[in-house]
Design a protein that fits this description.
mainly alpha; Cytochrome C Oxidase, Chain A; two-stranded antiparallel sheet; 79% helix
Length: 368
């Protein structure tokens, strides 16, 4: 994904004649375990059967999914660019911190590990910016800072307060990646637009800590602006006409941006969501509809860079992508109509879609 140099080779396993970097695979496995723990917590929050039924685990759903899974995955990809083994402390701390939370270790220990991992992640990106002082790297460093800020504040504040900061982290990070990958389409206006969007998102996130009604409206307006910018200038509208991987990638990008626009609109209208429906749409539209859709879109690029093996495109990948967005749509209809059964059904479909994507991706890597 990155245009910067990747890290030197790590110790490797041999599989079907192709070398696999063992250290990075283990770190990726930490992120995978965080994902499973986060999905289990999501089932608990839905009030349905879960392998580990615990209210304590359910309360950890957001931080484990965002910092534990997404944070580990993104920081691992960035660590490869720095050519410094210490950079891998970031994904290691984030993954271990998330698992410490879900296995019953003292909550403060897990929170501190996540905070240290997010700080290490920020340091990695600052080091990359020192090496290559480019606007997109600066934007990524700013996004990582908000992950660290959220993790640090979570030690004293509740999850609801820090989730908008994690949304700032995710939106800036993905917007920077899209600007990096699509500069030929976006042209010279890409970097100034990215920095402007990052500034607006940051302002909304910071103000939202002290004045949620004002700050979250700014955040919503910025998120809506990012979504409209990417819908207009990113490559999705052009690649959707092409078959195969490019069409799949484009569909995931376009659908993700639509959900970000929906979430931004909710924040813009209501400010701080006070009822379950508005909160659910804003939060899961951002982290599921936008974030997980972008993970699916970027997986054929991220995974080969991380594990040294290709993730070939298979038509079966459409099934989890469609299910993810269909489940989220059911969830939103359930929220708006006050139908708990529909809301729960959509949530279960979301969990199943993510698990299905993991299974198909793993099979495609093992049996290309």
């Amino acid at each position: 994904m990155s245009t910067l140099p990747i890290a030197p080779p790590a110790p490797r396993l041999r599989n079907q004649g192709t070398s696999i970097p063992l250290g990075r695979v283990l770190l990726l496995a930490l992120g995978g375990l965080s994902l499973l723990a986060g999905l289990n917590a999501g089932l608990v929050r839905l009030g349905v059967w879960a392998p580990i039924a615990s209210d304590r685990v359910g309360d950890l759903h957001g931080p484990v999914m965002v910092l534990g899974f997404l944070g580990t995955l993104i920081s691992l990809e960035r660590a490869q660019a720095l050519r410094n083994p210490l950079a891998y402390l970031a994904p290691a701390l984030l993954g271990v911190g998330a698992l410490a939370l879900v296995v019953g270790a003292p909550v403060l220990l897990g929170q501190l590990l996540l905070f240290e991992g997010a700080v290490a992640f920020t340091a990695v990106l600052v080091a990359l910016w020192v090496r290559a002082p480019l606007p997109l790297v600066a934007a990524q460093a700013l996004g990582a800072f908000f992950a660290a800020l959220a993790a640090g504040l979570w030690i004293r504040l509740d999850v609801v307060t820090v989730l908008p900061l994690l949304a700032v982290f995710l939106i800036i990070t993905i917007a920077a990646e899209r600007a990096e990958l699509a500069q030929l389409v976006m042209g010279t206006r890409a970097m100034p637009t990215l920095l402007l969007m990052a500034t607006l998102l940051s302002a909304g996130g910071v103000i939202g800590i002290f004045a949620p009604a004002v700050g979250l409206r700014i955040l919503g307006a910025a998120a809506l602006a990012v979504a409209l910018w990417l819908l207009r200038d990113d490559v999705g509208r052009r690649m959707i006409r092409i078959s195969g991987l490019r069409r799949f990638n484009a569909a995931a990008l376009l659908a993700g941006n639509v959900w970000l626009a929906v979430s931004g609109l909710v924040w813009l209208i209501v400010g701080q969501p006070m009822d379950r429906g508005a909160y659910d749409i804003a939060i899961h539209g951002t982290f599921l509809g936008f974030g997980l859709s972008m993970v699916m879109a970027h997986a054929p690029i991220i995974f080969p860079a991380v594990i040294g093996r290709p993730l070939p495109y298979k038509r079966a990948l459409w099934a989890p992508l469609v299910a993810l967005h269909a489940g989220l749509a059911l969830r939103v209809v359930g929220d708006l109509a006050g139908l708990d059964l529909l809301w729960r059904t959509g949530g279960i479909v979301n969990v199943a879609s993510i698990l299905l994507f993991v299974v198909i991706a793993a099979y495609s890597v093992i049996r290309p």
